[in-house]
Protein 1
Amino acid sequence: MEAAVGQHPLSAPTGPLRRADALAVSIFLIGCHTSQHIRRATPGEDAPCLPLTLNSHAHFDHAGGLATLQKASGARLWVSQGDADIVAAGGAGGYDLGPFRFLTYLWFLRYPAPRVDHRFKDGATIRVGPVEVTAHVTAGHTPGCTSWSFPVRDDDRELLAVHICSLTLPPALSLGEYPGIRADFERSFRTLRSLPADIWVAAHAREFGRYRKFLERARVADRVAPFIDREGYLRYIDSAEETFRKLLADQ
Ligand SMILES: [Zn+2]
């Protein structure tokens, strides 16, 4: 298996990425697939290694390290339209707390604000060297929560990998919503089900059984097989939707 999965935080990053790794929790990062380094370049440059950082959503545990990473690497940062303002403000203005949204402006709830270089739309296809990823805005957890899909080649078969943005229900759903949050979740369940995912990962390792899958990989002949898990993918979506429906029914 090459390219995308090898560069995902599933595997230990090397070189300059390591320093930022402690803060760059679950950041979906594309580096140079040959050198394993990221270097300064401009978007649109026809280079094999365009340094570009993409992440899943604006929460501190997924965006808190972006400014540090940006400083260390010089990488550009592209964020979905829905989350861009929140990320650029270091988390201020997030909708999680509903009517208590003003609390997100307090300094101790914020993270170092990175520079957002570009805002992409739902469905954007982003090419970096040999890797092409497609953005699927699966909003609800945050207004611009972004899942990513990308093909992964394993010898003569091509598999589709999907990085799911979180489907955890934010407190805003019970406290008071951000506009359209219910419709956003409904759309997100539909979007994710429609993707023919073979391999999936999520913003938190436990959600997709990373540890279990890596252990299993050491025991089987086909090292890719433990990661092919469409059932687990659908189960994750089903379980999130069930929690969502239950919460709505209880309200
Ligand atoms: Zn989150």
Protein 2
Amino acid sequence: MKILHLISSPRGAVSFSIKLGNAIVEKLVTANPNSTITTHDLTSSPFPHLEEVHLNSFYTPLENFTPELTEAVKHSNEAIAELMDADVIVIGVPLYNFGIHSTLKAWIDHIARAGQTFSYSGNGPEGLVKGKKVYLAISSGGVYSEGPMKSYDFTEPYLRAVLGFLGMVDMKAFRVEGVNMPDLKDQALEKAIESIVL
Ligand SMILES: Cc1cc2nc3c(=O)[nH]c(=O)nc-3n(C[C@H](O)[C@H](O)[C@H](O)COP(=O)(O)O)c2cc1C
């Protein structure tokens, strides 16, 4: 099994989403001992925000490519090749201002490409990234899985929508919740790790 592990917290060893992501990866490896793991820290090696040159590289036919466009499309081509090659994608998701970290959004902007990861046919859009399993390791200061803040969570619903649009519909989310809440923070990680079911 080929595992792609994406990290999007800049907090390294103290990050809860990284710890939870690592716990998911460990369980996957225990269940599939011959697995290979590719880990990308999107915060230390970020994908560039989409600029005009990237968009031109996405939409220019190959025969009209310049050296500049060839360079610009590399990030996207490499990320898509790696994604297509993976069987399982584990994504660490720190909740920032009700949404995902901007480095994870930048990665998504480079993998969502018409003709490569989705297409439009007579039947509407079709996701081309098929047969993957996706695990989200979400970490948040408050509680969003239930209760009054549920509708403020734009991490899981957004990732289900955009990755689902690309074909990644087999997704499970696990959460370290309430890491800033005195009554919940001490048990939050342990509870999240216990909740992991592959
Ligand atoms: C810039 C920033 C924005 C945050 N926004 C929210 C928020 O909107 N809601 C919330 O519950 N927690 C918020 N938090 C708390 C984080 O979700 C929490 O610290 C989480 O554990 C971060 O993930 P990490 O431990 O993997 O770095 C924020 C933290 C930071 C640094």
Protein 3
Amino acid sequence: MSIYKIKCLTTNDFYIGSTNNFTRRKYQHRSHFRCNVKNSCDKLYDFMRLNGGLDNFDFSILEEFKNIIKKELKIIEQKYIDELKPTLNAIKSYATEEDIRLMYCKGSSKYRIKHPDKIKAYGKEYQQRRYDCECGKNVQLCKKSRHEKTAYHISNIA
Ligand SMILES: [Zn+2]
């Protein structure tokens, strides 16, 4: 499992993606670029066409992971996208608040044992996320279901 980057050698514009097989994904990008198929990477391929084609782009791995599931990889990919702000990604790769909650809050103790430090760190950050509930309280995302059973919440939603 890895997070990878495709960078334009002349403009430094770049794309970030994730895959469970970097070599295969690399070829897939190349063939999609050539066949002109419509997909979520259109922005990248259009940019490639205007900027020297495949030879002018560098494919590299940013980070590799072992023993993680696809859903976790997607969350990490989104984190990279949020932080590095790639110019050639068109769509959000992942992460509704609900998915994050299920991944890091409900299974937190299990994941803490199973996964490397890095994943733990990402999880911790998400665990601290809060949201404004319709009852007027600001609640920790992880405590959403518990909060929704409280008398305060129930009596304050009409
Ligand atoms: Zn509430």
Protein 4
Amino acid sequence: MRVLLLFANTLADRRKYRSKAARVGILPPLGLGYIAAVLRQSGHEVRIIDMRLDSWSQDLAEEIREFNPGIVGISIFVISEIEGYKLATHLKEILPHVPIVFGGPQVSYFPKTPLERCPAVDITVQGEGEYIMRDLVDALEKYGHTTGIPNTFYRAIDGSILAGPSSPVVPDLEELPFPARDLMTLDRYAPEVYEFQRLPATNILATRGCAYGQCTFCFEAGQFRTKYRYQSAAKLVREIETLRDEYGIREFVFNDDDLLSNGKLLTEFAELAIQKKLDVRWSCWGRVTPCSQRLLEVIAKSGCWLVSFGIESGNQDLLDKLQKGMTLEKCRQVVSWAHQAGIETFGTFMIAIPGETPEKAEKTIDFAIELDLTYAAFIPTHPLYGTPLFETCVSEGRLVKSPYSHEPLQTRYLPKISYVPEGYESEHQVEQVLSRAYRRFYFRPAYWLKHLKKLAAGYSVRKYWTGLRFAVGLSRNWLHEDDSKFAVRYSSAPVYDVKPANQRLFTISPVDRETRHLS
Ligand code: B12
Ligand code: SF4
């Protein structure tokens, strides 16, 4: 059967990425790539369209009609939900009898919502979609219907929403084929300017889930926790060799949630990479614990030049509350080891954590400066549904906006405020602290002096300009009025409703309370 897979764009992408510099900051949709590869193993013909790169047009509609898919899959996450509905509506107009399936992170957390909000959506898939989508397509081809497939939700004839059985089955990473990157035009993508040293660069995954899974603000600590799995170093090296030899890729951004803690995999990978003279550069995200000096030295030798650490706060009591499982001292040590090994560091910090005051935030900014990080990002706390932090913030009654409304994520780098802790006077004060954090971190003569050498290279100027854009808020992408109207129309069945802070009137629809746990 012919299957069309689309990655929905966000409202902001529409303006930002259709410019000439379109590809920077956009990486291939690996989730769809894996699904496509598994579908092809079953003999299906697949096409992938990334709507962050293409606009809806008569030509595109014609191309899709010609391809004539038997089923369509659309991937959404929180900020692309509305555009996903628009896309489904357009597709339903040109392919009225073709089932439209929704999947992706937002659907995994709210599996019934797309069916409630958008009549063009026929089926939703919760969790990792490789085998489920294959079973859906196989069933449609063999039996002409798709009801009852595990981890799916669908509309019954009377309009009610039904669910297939719940299954904890998740793909074995060693068995999965490589993502079908030949279905994506790799040279239309590039990481953010501060994320690469060499081009062409692309993203890659070696693990899924998180081995630690306890930070209170994270999905991996809540009801949506996924089983931690990893593939072998040998498979990872094969994938990198393929990308290097077939596509000329010279740099890799690991998109894994928790790669650095897997010392075994990384050491084996680094040894193989050195032995095979892979000659690639790479970067990843990482936790501070467990991380040894030896591991950082080994990965640096294999080409790792940047690690992004989730540091969150410069206050030990707040780190303990967040259950980060790390000390400020360990953090100092690891960042310093990374620098000694020649690895650049990106630290991400949360501002307005429960229990934080502007004074404590100041300590966080001091800590970021003390660590001498290469880059830092300060992000307001968004208590996301399904995380332990969400429950805390709801019970405090201090959420000022739903983190899932379409307002908080209007901006790419400076999202609006959804939560104001007791120690802050207002949303405005949180915004002021955020701006101050960027100003204090980036507008330091010492910072610029230290980095002057790097500015000699052309792309580094752009890197630091990106840092400055963070600082002065130039990277905002506000919604247009017509977009807002559309958002309101399609959000008419709210996931939940937030009343102003201190009123303790936060409600969650029963639908989401029923969301099943996938282990
Ligand atoms: C890499 C990454 C990014 C990269 C983007 C990479 C890219 N290619 O676009 C960057 C750093 C840019 C990024 C940015 C953001 N991200 Co992000 N990101 C991730 C991360 C860490 C990994 C994504 C990934 O590759 N996963 C692995 C693949 C295999 O999984 P997958 O894509 O989810 O696909 C599987 C399933 O979802 C499902 N599936 C997916 N699509 C479909 C479609 C169909 C039809 C079916 C059946 C199934 C299906 O099957 C797939 C295969 O198993 C995830 C966390 C995570 N572990 O997933 C967060 C995550 C996706 N990001 C998230 C968020 C919130 C953001 C931001 C909005 C943050 C912000 N405030 O700015 C921005 C958005 C920027 C933008 N304009 O798009 C959230 C999404 C929450 C939600 N409810 O949707 C996540 C889940 C992190 C989190 N826990 O908060 N992100
Ligand atoms: S924040 Fe990182 S380390 Fe903590 S639970 Fe989430 S993925 Fe794991």
